[in-house]
């Protein structure tokens, strides 16, 4: 269900911008279901770890205040063509996901 | 003889498997612990920043740029892009002062990554969005006011 997509673009600074889109509901836990009147339980991505050639380069901590289907961008400074970049995420209900891509 | 070789081999393989499993499990445990629970629970901006970065001097900085809309029609999706020219940035946090829980998101930057963080956040009402950057033992901040016409924090 949870699809993760990654795009890598070359940046003016010489590095690469890594863009990650996770399909995730990002429920805050405050929203009420209109039909039942009950609160929808919180369900959000907590951590996203970016690795570059196997070494962690950034770790994002997300909260329920991040929008549905979070789109996150970070910058790699020391990246070259052919390097592998991967991302792993974990949510508050223990679900995980991730993807991997190679810099063109 | 053959049996001994086989046993030795399987024993070595077993050790590697155990080591690999331990190696795989450890980072996950570390990650779960590092999610800033106290910052998330904080009900005002100052507490959130304190919980996130500890007691460090906070200074206004020109070295941080924030790209965000002046007016957001839909508070459920407000794109925020923050970047800094500070070369030794260690962490970037995005805090929305008037949200029920001001801390929205933060990123820890390790060597190999630059001072850029972009995301989309929810905003309950018109509020300044402050970007905090931890660099060189100080916290640098810059703010940008986003007007929100329809809030996006549930309800």
From TrEMBL, chain A:
Residues 85-94 have a biased composition (Polar residues). InterPro entries: Ig-like_fold, Ig_E-set, SoxZ, SoxZ_dom. Residues 12-100 form the Sulphur oxidation protein SoxZ domain. SUPFAM superfamilies: E set domains. Residues 85-104 are annotated as: Disordered. NCBIfam families: SoxZ_true. This is Sulphur oxidation protein SoxZ domain-containing protein. It comes from marine metagenome.
UniProtKB/TrEMBL annotation, chain B:
InterPro entries: SoxY (IPR032711), SoxY_sf (IPR038162), Sulphur_oxidation_SoxY (IPR016568), TAT_signal (IPR006311). Residues 50-153 form the Ig-like SoxY domain. It holds the Pfam family SoxY. It comes from hydrothermal vent metagenome. This is Sulfur oxidation protein SoxY.
